[in-house]
Amino acid sequence: MLIMIRNNILYKVQQYIFQGSLVLMVLFFYSCEKEELPVSPHDPGDVITNSVKMESDYRNQLFFDLETNSLVKQNYKVIWDLGFETSPSGNKIILNGAKFMKAANTQTSNFNSVTDTIGLTFKIDMPSGSTDSTAIENWTPNNVYVIDRGYNELGTHQGFCKIEFLSVNASSYVVHFSKLDGTNDFSMTIPKDINYNFTFLSLNGNLVSVEPPKENWDLAFTQFTHYYYNDGMTYLVTGCLNNRNKVEVAQVFDKNFAAITLNDVNNYSFSKNINTIGFDWKEYDFNTGTYLIFSNQNYIIKSTEGKYFKLHFIDFYDTFGVKGTPTFEFQEL
C-alpha cells in the first residue's frame, strides 16, 4: 500500500515538472522570436484636377508630366514634319500625324524625275506608334519618297515635298529634299541626341524643338491620325498620346475612379501603344453640338519614373464653354 502511494506521488511530481518545462520552453522561444515590424499602409497622393489648352482649333501640342503636375512644353502643331529616331542604332522616321501627313514610296532613286503624285500610294503611320508600322518603313539610301505635308489648323493643305534619305549612322542622318518642282532644295545633316525620342525636321528647311527630353514628360495632348480597321478609313482626331519612353497604360472601364487602388496594377493589362488613352474618352453629340465625356473610362498610367497614376477626363471645355481644353483628374496610387 505504501509503495502504491509513493508511486502515485512520484507520478504527479513528474507531471508537474514536465508541464513546468513546457511552460518554460514556450516562454523561451517566444522571447527569442524576432519582433514583427509594423508596416505603414500605402498613402496615395491627393486627387489633382488640371487642364491643358489646345485651343478650339486644336493648334497646340502640349506635353504634361504627372509627377510634377506640370505642363513641360507646348508647340504649334504645324512646325514640324518628320521625326528621326535618336538611338545609336535607330533609323526609323515618323510623320507628324497631327497634320494628317502621309508618305509614298516612289520606288525610284532618280530624285529629279519625281515631279508629281500620279500613281503613288500614300500611307500613314499607324496610330499605335509602332516604328515597325510607319509610312517611311525600311527605307533604303537614295530611294525617293513623296511627302504629303498635311493640313494646318485652318484646313489649308501644306503642299508636297520629295525627299531621299542618303545615310544614317550612330550620330546622324543625311537627307536631301525639295518641293516637287525642285525649288526649296535642301541637303541637311540631322543629329541624334539620345536624351530625346526624336530629332524633328521641318521641310521648310530647319530643325525644330518639339518634345521635351524623353525622361521629363508622360502625356502629349495633340491631334493625331487614327485608322479605323473596320472600314479602312483614316481620320484626324483629338486626344492624348503617351510618351513611348517607358510609359505604359492600362484601361480600367469596369471600376469607378475612386475605387481604383495600387493593387489594381496587377489586375489589368498594360500597353506600350502610344494611343491607349487615345481620343474616345469623349464623343460628339450631334443633337446638342457638344462633346460628351465618358468619365467612367479610367486609365492607370505607369510614368517615366516608374510610378503609377490613375486618370480620367471630366471635361473638354474651358470656363467660357469653348472646346479644346481637356480637363482631367489624376492621383498617384
Please describe what this structure looks like.
The protein is mainly beta and 333 residues long. It folds into two domains: 155 residues, no CATH class; 129 residues, no CATH class. Helix content is 9%, strand content 37%. It contains one helix and 20 strands. The strands form five sheets. The protein has a five-stranded antiparallel sheet, with no helix packed on it. The longest helix has 31 residues. The protein is globular, with a radius of gyration of 31 Å. The protein starts with a helix and ends with a strand. The N terminus is likely disordered.
* Helix/strand/pairing category: mainly beta
Distance between the termini: 79 Å
Task: Indicate the percent of residues in helices.
Answer: under 10%
**How many individual helices?**
1
Q: How many DSSP-defined strands? A: 20
Strand content: 35-45%
Q: Helices and strands, in N-to-C order?
A: HEEEEEEEEEEEEEEEEEEEE
> Could you report the average pLDDT, rounded to the nearest whole number?
91
What key attributes describe this structure?
mainly beta
Layout of secondary structure:
Elements: H1 2-32, E1 48-51, E2 60-65, E3 70-76, E4 82-85, E5 93-95, E6 102-105, E7 144-148, E8 160-168, E9 172-179, E10 186-191, E11 198-202, E12 206-208, E13 219-228, E14 233-242, E15 248-252, E16 282-285, E17 290-293, E18 298-302, E19 308-317, E20 323-332
Antiparallel strand pairs: 1-20, 2-3, 2-13, 4-5, 4-11, 6-7, 7-8, 8-9, 9-10, 11-12, 13-14, 15-18, 16-17, 18-19, 19-20
In short:
This protein has 333 residues and is mostly beta strands. It contains 1 helix and 20 strands. A hairpin with a 4-residue loop joins β16 (282-285) and β17 (290-293).
